[in-house]
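Reviewer 2 asked us to include a model.

Predict the structure of this chain.
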Amino acid sequence: MDNKSFDSKRIAEGYVKRPWLHEKVIEQIKSDYHITKNFKNGLDVGCGAGLSTKGLKLICDKVTGTDISSEMINVCNKLYEDNLYYFYVAKAEETRIPKEKYDIITAAGVINWVDKDRFLANASQIMNSKGIMVIYDFWITDKMNEKAEYTDWYQTKYLKKFPKPPRNENVWNQDDLTEDFLMEKQTIYEMEYGFNMEDFIDFMMIQSNVNAKIESGEISEKETKEWMQDTLQSIFQNRTRTLIFSGYSWYIRKN
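Predicted model (structure tokens):
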């Protein structure tokens, strides 16, 4: 599945409801870099429906969000009317050079879809000297607190019906970067989030596994929701369940 599959109104509106775990990632950035005052100007590449941009705004005076999907940017412009936010449609490799170059760039859940060399070349042009770039992502796992049945559902039912689509999942290291950049640190972590069954199904409906099947016409939204309701009812039992997310952050400094 290519990234054009995310350019739909259904997916854009679904992204608004995603867990705002970006805040926890930003708190980790603050701790790792001992940040005590805001950056002046930040860029969020592949901003989606703006949740990652909202996170970046916690440590920036003003932020710009870009995404290849016009539907995502439409949602952002409706949700974030503050003049300290600015959004526009652009590929991650083709961000415009701003009048005031960026002090920090974040890229959440984007890096698997970009042309690495073009992305880094563009980033070098738009960043201030000694600027920081944080590449991060997080994803739902097969773990649920106090409910082992979920692991079986995820591994033997969900992934069988909605297999993971192919994409580039290489982990970058210093050799993958150009001489303009230094890989300062790489971290992995886990985060928790509580879902009721309805919210969990809404979240799963916009996963790339599910998107690939729906966008190809192999299964309808209605059929997908009904299947999830039928197979998850015994796990959730009308209760809120705590799901485990895995994630990583790569801290890259411009030389």
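The first helix runs from residue 9 to 15. The mean pLDDT is 93. We have added this to the supplementary material.
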